[in-house]
Amino acid sequence: MSDVILVGIGVDCASIVDQAMSELRSTSRIIAVIFDCDERYNEISDKSCPQKRIEDIPGLMYDKLLVCCKSCIVEESVKLFCEEYKLPRSKCGGYITSKIGPHRINWDQVQTKEDLVEQICSSGSLNDLERFFYGGHHRPVSKWLHYFEVYDRHFSKFRNKAPVVMEIGVFRGGSLQMWKDYFGTGAQIIGVDIDENTKGFEEEQICIEIGSQSDRNFLKQLKLKYPKVDILIDDGGHTMNQQITTFEEMFCHISSDGVYLCEDLHTSYWKEYGGGYRCQDSYIEYSKNFIDYIHAWFSVDPQLQENRYSRSMHSLHYYDSILVIEKRRMGPAVDLMIE
Question: Which of 103, 154, 238, 253 is catalytic?
């Protein structure tokens, strides 16, 4: 067994240290826990390891020192830590608790973006969206890496069935190419953006409409032009008004067995986007009404009665920063007992 020191740095590092202690105990001896702020030691649940101070490190014997911090790439944190306290870089690494989708990452070996990509690509479990993304033969795509598992889970049933896919928010056109590759020949990919320059990203199977997702008149015209939409992806401006307006105008336009996906929902917790924790104007709070809608058939309260959403929402799937709604024609549930 190797002797390990855990060093917590930054906000939320106590929970990361907790997870590191839990995961490493079977393979390592944790000889000390150190925090950049001593009070954080009181936040960890497992206090069986002695607390030390940073200045104690030079006098300790250890095989590996792991910096536990929130950032996905810890190279800079580890580098600065080693420089400040004159520690050998070869004995210092980083530790982060999260996986990338289904991929288990050895964060101790991640010091650059290239290291992270290499580990994911060598995992042997990439889906086709990830193969496209990491392959790099496309225009720039910017996505949170855990999104690809969610996309594949809910979109795979449409592959090679010529769906109409609309994505609000074009960026530099790479994700539209990704959908074209994923859904195959016959798929119609529609990008929507306020930037007129994005028209230059049009190609076979990909067309781009210019307009604002917060403009209801524009969205109404969009529905007239495209009477069928199977998948709607809202990756636009991410403000509360934009997300709510888009949902209200476009959800019922999606085909009866289609899928609605709104991403980057973390902006619901940011005031600069019109959100905030438990802010009634946030999209997260707005979407909590959907839970009532799918149960409205059972309501005896006149304030909650079945509506057009009750009749079309089959299921709600919340993920980190994503809401997926799968549609289906719905009615009251049927109860049956057979003896």
Answer: 238
